[in-house]
Amino acid sequence: MEETTSLYSKFLVSAKGLGKGQADAGRATETFSKALKIGGADAASAASATLPFGQALASGVLRGDEFNSVNEASPRIMRLLAESNRRDHQQAYGQGKRRHGQQRPLPRWRAWS
């Protein structure tokens, strides 16, 4: 429960930066938690993925150990991130806003709402 509360607070900070509110952060947190359950993660696996994902939200980048924790607990979440990331990149490259080799930020809200 503590990890979920922490994740919600990270989503909330991100939401405010995007002009979104508490309802959006709550929906994103709920979707993340449900994706873990649907993927078959037990309580320990869910906790071990939730904290690192919250850290990734805070930093804006899903790095090595954080990536591995989330991937092991829920390949479904990783697919959601990949789909969202692919859409973001297609749009950014199409508009000339991104060039090859630039660091990619975490996908924004589409995967979670």
List the helices and strands and how they pair.
Layout: H1 2-17, H2 22-38, H3 43-59, H4 64-73, H5 75-94
Which key features would you list for this structure?
single chain; mainly alpha; globular
Quickly describe the structure.
The protein has 113 residues and is mainly α. It is built from 5 helices and no strands.
Strand content: under 5%
- SSE series: HHHHH
Envelope shape:
globular
Number of strands: 0
Estimated radius of gyration: 14 Å
Mean pLDDT: 79
Q: Please, what is the oligomeric state?
A: single chain
State the end-to-end distance.
Answer: 21 Å
Give unreliable regions as ranges.
none
Residues in helices, as a percent range? over 70%
Structural class determined from secondary elements: mainly alpha
Largest sheet: none
Number of separate helices: 5
Description of the structure:
It is a single chain. With 113 residues, this protein is an all-alpha fold. The protein has a domain at 2-75. The protein contains 5 helices and no strands. It has helices at residues 2-17, 22-38, 43-59, 64-73, 75-94. The chain is globular and about 40 Å long. The mean pLDDT is 79.
